[in-house]
Design goal:
- The protein is an all-alpha fold.
- The protein has one domain (3-321): Farnesyl Diphosphate Synthase, CATH 1.10.600.
- Helix content is 73%, strand content 1%.
- The chain is built from 18 helices and 2 strands.
- Helix 6 (62-87) runs antiparallel to helix 8, helix 9 (127-149) packs antiparallel against helix 10 (158-183) and helix 17 packs antiparallel against helix 18.
- The chain starts with a helix and ends in an 11-residue tail after the last helix.
């Protein structure tokens, strides 16, 4: 089952999310077009779905849930805009990025506007919800700083990578689950289980995404294969490959990272060698291990089928990662 099918089965998005930015964006004409563009191309709203699904475990007020869903989606869009600006990315999910289409100045202001709107949406929801998301923003920024520290660093270890994705992705996805539980009025033990569920789901989600950057073709991913490699971002597949490759191969990667514009052919060849090395299968196993831990957390919570469906959707079949499949 694809994520779009999971979302459509919930029949939630139009009624709950709507247009969270309508009250403000029309007051600033320079933001109207890029913000509208983001809402149309901003992805599958996984984080918003997690807030909604977690809240279904309890009893909530419709207005509070709508605010919480809109807040996390707005924060996610803000983080994407700033990520693309930092990376000077031209494409995201097959669409031109805001910084490439409207320029870096507009992209910076759009991201700042979205962060401000997120806080405006959160304020009426109370101190607990606000604290969870503010702590998450700190985690995300610290993780981005750490990722910059390890950019193009061939000595990056697995624990360094894990610390980055904990703050960059797992913290946010965990926060979405906690916020849904808080909106639903769940007791502290249930909030704790949602926290653990989201944390493991987030780790699996990011490792899966980093693995697919080496496994998928350009057309199926919506951005060039090996984008992380091209930008000098050291993720798990490269870390595992560096542990087993020859000194000559390691020297080639070091040379590639020193180049301001590595040849696409060299990137593609290196991605192919990494696929041939078998490390993507190891990545797949780690994804599934974290998903197993996430599924175990669900056993202590009220049954919400969409959360089980999300776990199944994110599972990686290692056979699909081999070069000839």
């Amino acid at each position: 089952m694809e994520l779009d099918s999971i979302s459509s089965n919930m029949k939630w998005e139009t009624a709950v999310l709507g247009d969270p930015l309508a009250p403000m964006r029309n007051r600033h004409s320079v933001l109207t077009e890029p913000v509208s563009y983001l809402l149309e191309t901003g992805g599958k709203k996984l984080r918003a779905l997690l807030v909604y699904a977690s809240a279904q475990m309890g009893s909530y007020r419709d207005n509070d849930l709508a605010r919480a869903v809109a807040a996390v989606e707005t924060l996610h869009l803000a983080s994407l805009v700033h990520d693309d600006l930092l990376d000077n990315s031209h494409l995201r999910r097959g669409f031109t990025t805001v910084n490439h289409r409207w320029g870096s100045g507009t992209a910076l202001l759009v991201g700042d506007f979205l962060y401000a709107r997120c806080f405006a949406l959160l304020q009426p929801l109370g101190e607990q919800v606000m604290t969870v998301l503010l702590d998450t923003i700190v985690d995300m920024v610290e993780a981005e700083l750490k990722q910059l520290t390890y950019q193009k660093n061939l000595h990056t270890e697995y624990q360094d990578y894990l610390a980055i994705i904990k703050g960059k992705t797992a913290s946010f996805i965990s926060a979405c689950c906690q916020i849904g539980g808080l909106i639903g009025g769940l007791p502290p033990p249930s909030i704790s289980w949602l926290n653990r569920f989201g944390y493991n789901l987030g780790l699996a989600y990011q490792i899966r995404d980093d693995t697919m950057d080496y496994a998928l073709t350009d057309s199926s991913r919506g951005k060039p294969t090996g984008s992380d490699l091209r930008q000098g971002t050291v993720t798990l597949p490269l870390i595992l490959y560096l542990q087993k490759c020859s000194p000559d191969a390691r020297a080639e990667i070091d040379s590639l990272f020193r180049s301001n514009s590595p040849p696409p052919g060299q990137i593609n060849q290196l991605c192919s060698r990494i696929r041939d090395s078998g490390v993507l299968t190891d990545c797949s196993q780690l994804v599934n291990d974290y998903l197993d831990q996430a599924a175990e957390c669900l056993e202590s919570l009220p049954i919400i089928p969409v959360l089980y469906q999300l776990v199944d959707y994110l599972r990686l079949d290692s056979s699909s990662l081999t070069p000839n499949n």
